[in-house]
Structures are given as C-alpha cells and as structure tokens.
C-alpha cells in the first residue's frame, strides 16, 4: 500500500515509551517537532486546543484560521500542516484508536461525536469564552495527571478526556435526543463501506447492494441528510486519497493511479481535473511549493 505524506505514530512524537497516549502543552511540543509544520499524517487521534496564537492550519487540504479558544479534532489517516504567526500555545493530546477500549464497553463510542467523523467541516470548533475556560481547566487537569505517576492515572485521563469531548459536543449544540433514525444509521453504514471499499467500488449500485437497498433509496437518503448524491460521496473519498498520495513527491502519477484502481494515467487525470480544475501534477506542485515556503 502506498503512503502519501510522512506518517507518525505516538512513539516517534514522545520522549516517553507509552504507545497509547501522549499529552503536552503545545508550544514545547511545536518547538520539539519543527518537522511537523509540513504536511504529514498520524496513525492516531489528534486533539489540539489553542489558548493563544495566530496563523493557519490545514486539515485534508482545507485551511482554518488559528484562534485562541479553538479546538480541533483529527482521526487517524488525515493529512494536516501548520503555518503559525508569532508565539502559539495551548494543549495537545495524541491517543491511539484502542485507548478507550479497556474503559468503555462500546468500542465505537467516539463515533457518537461528529468531530471524530473525519468530516473536516465538523473538526474545527471555536468555543465561546466561558466554554474555552472550562475546557482549558480540564486540559490542565489532564496535564497534571500526565506529569504525575500515581496508580490509575491513565483511567483518570480517559475520564477527563471524555468530559472534554462531551462538553465540546454540548457547546456545539450537538445533543441529539433519542437514537439515530433508520436513515441516519444507513448513511453511517454507507460511509463506513466507502472507507473500506472506495478503491474497488465506485458505483452507488454496488454499495446499495451491500446495504440491501435500492440505488434510488441510497441516493434519496444522501440527498435528504447531506444534500449530495451518493456518487459524490464515493468520488470525494477517492479524490481525497489521491490528494494525500500526491503530497509524496517520490510517488509517480502512474503509481497513484494504480493504487486507486484507475487503470491508467489519462483516466485518473481526467477524474482529478474534472473535480479540482487542475491536473494532479499541478496540484502536487502547488502543495510542495506551499510546504517549502512554510
């Protein structure tokens, strides 16, 4: 399997040998890992809360303005980079996809939070002043636990982190009442299937068959809940992976086209340009130039 950008696991970003979690204040973390300004991706969940600073950060090729009181959430595999202006501080937590499994019976618990869906539009949240103070206090408690070493400190960090997630969810106004509807569950399962099959299956009818519904029903659900056609979701996932792979200058366009099952360069280039308005080569040049200047 081809890799696009540099990929980091928790061990490579920590002076401590603890594979499941890493906690730090943001400024010293940034000072210690200057290589992380350029585009890279992680094998873990990544949460950053800014208490000061300016500039931009980019998640899966979308730019966001850095602001105090802002918190962002990333899932394993997403690509991001930073471009800060002046001194930037806050808190950072990196944790593995198995970190909560020993505490929670529901292994899919994090999927309840839209900001852990991998949808970039849900990932960056600007908190009001009062909320930012509460979240900051919780991060301080997590830092204290991280820097101490009594028994059960990891479990207490888990509990404090869950408080952060639940409170941020409330501040967003995302407090759904009752269980998800049938169509919401259907959409969630469709998105999971896309994540697993987007390199092989490109047609809505293929996914509809796996979901035991008609293609028309699948399209109606996507249109109703997202305002998009089912095919658009499939194409967008393939396009995102193409962008991620294009950030690695050592991969040829042919290798990327083959990895994504496009068959040949011309088909891949046509697909890419139709959506992005530029060729894969032009996109790569823009990204690499951006990284170089940063």
From TrEMBL:
InterPro entries, per database record: AraC-bd, Homeodomain-like_sf, HTH-like, HTH_AraC, RmlC-like_jellyroll, Tscrpt_reg_AraC-type_HTH
Pfam families: AraC_binding, HTH_18
Alphabetically ordered keywords of this record: DNA-binding, Transcription, Transcription regulation
Gene3D superfamilies found in the cross-reference section: Homeodomain-like, Jelly Rolls
Residue ranges annotated for the HTH araC/xylS-type domain, each copy included: 188-286
Domain of life: Bacteria
Keyword check for DNA-binding: yes
Transcription regulation in keyword set: yes
Coiled-coil residues: none
Official protein name in the record: AraC family transcriptional regulator
One function term, GO molecular function aspect: DNA-binding transcription factor activity
């Amino acid at each position: 399997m081809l890799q696009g950008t540099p990929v980091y696991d928790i061990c490579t970003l920590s002076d401590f040998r603890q594979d499941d979690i890493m906690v730090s204040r943001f400024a010293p973390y940034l000072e210690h890992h200057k290589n992380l300004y350029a585009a890279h991706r992680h094998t873990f969940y990544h949460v950053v809360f800014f208490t000061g600073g300016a500039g931009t950060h980019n998640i899966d090729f979308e730019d966001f303005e850095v602001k105090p009181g802002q918190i962002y959430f990333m899932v394993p595999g997403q690509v991001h980079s930073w471009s800060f202006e002046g001194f930037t501080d806050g808190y950072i937590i990196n944790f593995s996809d198995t970190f909560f499994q020993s505490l929670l019976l529901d292994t899919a618990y994090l999927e309840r939070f839209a900001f852990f869906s991998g949808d970039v539009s849900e990932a960056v949240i600007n908190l009001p002043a009062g909320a930012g103070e509460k979240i900051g206090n919780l991060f301080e408690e997590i830092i204290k636990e991280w820097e101490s070493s009594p028994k059960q400190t990891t479990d207490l960090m888990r509990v404090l982190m869950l408080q952060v997630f639940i409170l941020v969810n409330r501040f967003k106004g995302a407090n759904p009442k009752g269980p998800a509807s049938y169509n919401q569950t259907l959409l969630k399962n469709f998105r999971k299937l896309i994540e697993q099959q987007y390199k092989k299956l490109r047609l809505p009818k293929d996914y509809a068959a796996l979901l035991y519904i008609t293609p028309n029903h699948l399209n109606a659900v996507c249109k109703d809940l997202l305002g998009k056609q089912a095919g658009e979701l499939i194409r967008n996932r393939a396009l995102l992976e193409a962008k991620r792979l294009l950030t690695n200058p050592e991969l040829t366009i042919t290798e990327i086209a083959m990895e994504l099952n496009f068959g040949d360069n011309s088909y891949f280039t046509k697909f890419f340009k139709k959506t992005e308005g530029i060729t894969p080569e032009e996109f790569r040049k823009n990204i690499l130039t951006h990284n170089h200047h940063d």
